[in-house]
């Protein structure tokens, strides 16, 4: 675009295999105005297209709705999400695993001036840690849960106890977000000291577990962490412990910090879902329940890393993250807050995992 240094025009094309009535391009923003993104048919061909003005430093994913009902309601969106498809003409896509085990492709775009990712890129000639896999038996779970443990290169039980990190959504952190590569690179570059990490998988009970479930908290505190300490050489000091997660996992990490700062002295929240409110929370709709919980107690021995994407919903994601940040800072907490150039997706959470770890336990801290 002549004279516009911040935006580019991007054309998206959909090729229909059969006769269709309409095609909707669905970007990560503007869902409430999705009808403005109807694609146009190119003459009498099977090609549909739309041209969008997009900031040239973004990463974002998108989907396509074919033969859309054009109904803008909760019921309409529930039906629509079942039939959303990826862009077969775009070679860039993520493969996600649905709750039913089916794989799902999600198309994405990296704009030309997007910041290059560094920490998620695997390096060949560096020392690397190991991953061990277990199926953890819990008295509270109906079936054993897969967990994986990262130990850094040179790990020894005879060394000084290591700092430790527990992450929910473990499979996503390892297989989509390149979590092991991030750790190897950070340790190689001496950005953080060698650390031991426990990745716990989520299942089809994810929503119930990660909405501040006291049962899930009890599993982490009274079963998983003691097992972790018994089997690995990790510190018993809260200042060396980090609890982290993404989306609802970020919410739960913060809740665990609130309830158990004696175990975890650091909270790493990526796009934390602070829109969550328990049923008995009677404040106004725009209130942030988590910030009110921290506001009514004395400051705890906690440090925070919070981030959120600039393409995420303005009120129930960016707004509530800022409310929590502001309350924490007013209470005297050390908070690193970051906004990244993407949405509520997997395109930046791997790279910003590194930012969070450097902020919380970097060698300069």
Automatic annotation (TrEMBL):
Pfam families: Esterase. It comes from the Bacteria. InterPro entries: AB_hydrolase_fold, Esterase-like, Ig-like_fold, Ig_E-set, Mycobacterial_A85_antigen. This is Enterochelin esterase family protein. It comes from Clostridium punense.
